[in-house]
Amino acid sequence: MAHVTLPREILPADGRFGCGPSKIRPEQLAALAGPGSVLMGTSHRQAPIKNLVGQVRMGLSDLLRLPDGYEIILGNGGSTAFWDAAAFGLIERRAQNLVFGEFGGKFAASAAAPWLDAPDVRKAQPGARTVAEAVEGVDVYAWPHNETSTGVAAPVSRVVGDAGALTVIDATSAAGGINFSVSQADVYYFAPQKNLGSDGGLWFAAVSPAAIERIERVAASGRYIPEFLSLKNAVDNSRLNQTLNTPAVATLILLDKQLEWINGNGGLGWAAARTAESSSALYEWAEASAVATPFVSDPADRSPVVVTIDFDESVDAAAVAASLRANGIVDTEPYRKLGRNQLRIATFVSIEPDDVRQLIKAIDYTIEGMRS
What we know:
Blueprint: H1 26-33, H2 47-64, E1 71-76, H3 79-89, E2 95-99, H4 102-110, E3 120-123, E4 140-144, E5 146-147, E6 152-153, E7 166-170, E8 187-190, E9 202-207, H5 209-219, H6 231-238, H7 249-265, H8 267-288, E10 292-294, E11 306-311, H9 317-326, E12 342-346, H10 353-371
Parallel strand pairs: 2-3, 2-4, 4-7, 7-8
Antiparallel strand pairs: 1-9, 5-6, 8-9, 10-11, 11-12
């Protein structure tokens, strides 16, 4: 396949626009190779690693502006592990799951565990979202804050009329890039490899007093819970600044430096303004384009951190992505299971807004070059 060679002056300074894993800033890698190197290969039960875990928990508490009584807990594995942990240790009887992308669907599948009542699954068409509604017997209302697969974002707010249930929010691609009030959720959980610019192997969650009470009650109920998936174990170990098994130390080091950077620049409000600047540039370009349009039709549902752009039949988006990749601009391909003629572009906080503007120039130049 022929590729369009882009002029140097329109190339982004950094060509990484992937939705996961995401761009890691050079300063984070320098910290990993420098001061962090002495922590690699050391015991996670000793002070240096436990202090690092404590520092990360404090940084996340500051970033998310935790109310009194909320805690940051963490555990081994990623979001996939957390979905199963929630089925074992958080849902008492039945969940309501909003599905408007891949992550919401996977949590709904975990919530269909045989010891629970069948979940109330509310599924939207790709590019749209559904809304939670109070239903008798539901004790967990769950949905993603942001769907990485589709670029749909949803507000975080408690379900009116059901004060006893928990609000459980998947924040893997939202945490650190979308402003919100954590007091509107009981569990706000995420893996740190998106806006938080880290790597895999751990999940984190901001949990309310009500969520902690639920975790402890389910753990004491006699339900079988595998040790690795025990949220009670996660709470107990987190309070000791450790995990059940050895944590991903490199992930912690990278995350610590990212939190230092975001919090030092103004915290979640600063980060959200930065992602909004980048994503708005893409949405405005697509709306003005003769060949492109935002995949998410309702502007209120458009993600500020994952932008999905559809192209008409005159443009082969796969060829555009391949040509960009040949020029060092990588990971703009769409989510593989959607099967759409589109590009998917991360605008996470580490990605420079100026690089997004350069990317737009590169896309236009590529499309024009392919037509000539």
